[in-house]
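Response to reviewer comment R2.3. The reviewers asked that we include at least one raw input/output pair. We reproduce the pair for Flagellar biosynthesis protein FlhB here without editing.
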Amino acid sequence: MASASEEKTEKPTPKKKKEARKEGQVPRTPELGGWLGLLVVALALGPLMDHELDALRTLMATHLRAAEDPSVALALQLLGQAGQHILVTLVVLGAMVLVIGVVSALAQGGFYLSPKLAKPDAKKLNPLQGAKRLFGPHAAWEGVKVLVKSSVVAFLAWGAVKAMMPLVGGLLPIELVIHEVTAEVSRLILTVALAGLVMAAADYAMMRRRTGKQLRMSHSEIKQEHKQAEGDPLVKSAIRSRQLAAARNRMIADVGTADVLLVNPTHVAVALRYDPDRGAPRVVARGAGAIAAKIRETAAAERVPLVQDVPLARALYRHCQVGQEIPRELWAAVAQVLAFVLSRRHAGQHGGEHRTPRRTDELPEVLAGARRRRAVTTDHIG
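Raw output as returned:
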């Protein structure tokens, strides 16, 4: 674990960021959705008002004609038509604002349900923590935001009111006044929305910087995370050692099934088994040093004949793994040794140490990289 005094100067890892996102700790500002919604309202207000003015003219003409023969049913019908126009306008605006709000929230960090944030936390009731939140840098930034937003909106609103002052007085037709007021209000809302988007971008940058600072990690935290992801090297080494020991024990147990053990004479040992139904002879055990000594000891106990053949034992040890067939180039040399061993077995003679029956120490060159067939999949041992 990282000590409390250790500085967190490193950028968060992808795993740390993923965990933070699941807990809802992402840079996010509610300002963006609100100002984008206001921008949509500003852009849609003009066309909607023109549509509603046309509908209002039609509705007024219908009302005037209805006044010639008034009735309760006709009044309710006209009221329903007026309500329908208002409802359609509000639904269209509300739907656009809702979609914009959802899209802006998803763009800032996706949609995550964080049960951790809903759990009761005693730290939230700590008065010291509350004081820090109330008088800390974040609270100061929120205060600056409110002051700037209020100043910008007040300044723009005052400019719009000054521009509409000549329309007041009743000298202009009402239709022209409504059109000009609508246009001026649309420009005001559009200007305020654009200014708000600039402030929202600054707020998002601030929140991103603040969240990045909170997620910073120390060197020891990164090492600990890497260790958890890759596994403790000591544990992995211990597991690997146990696996090798188990495989070595299985290999030593298979020495008793061998037909011959080729030795060098003490440094290298390779045990071979020949089954005519399975093709070429296969290596059932191999080893050097202490493992070779253990193989020799087991072979002597199991009465497996030991044949001292330095070049052949070295060649088999170098080019074969446990479970593999011997190289094709060494078939002839191994066949001479097996013929000698099998002839003694048929004569009732088992075990013992013998010199190689081969008359020459020369062996064909084994092609490098030649594929060897395996009887079973085993680990490299020895």
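The CA atoms of residues 252 and 295 lie 6 Å apart. Residues 375-382 have pLDDT under 50 and may be disordered. Further pairs are available on request from the corresponding author.
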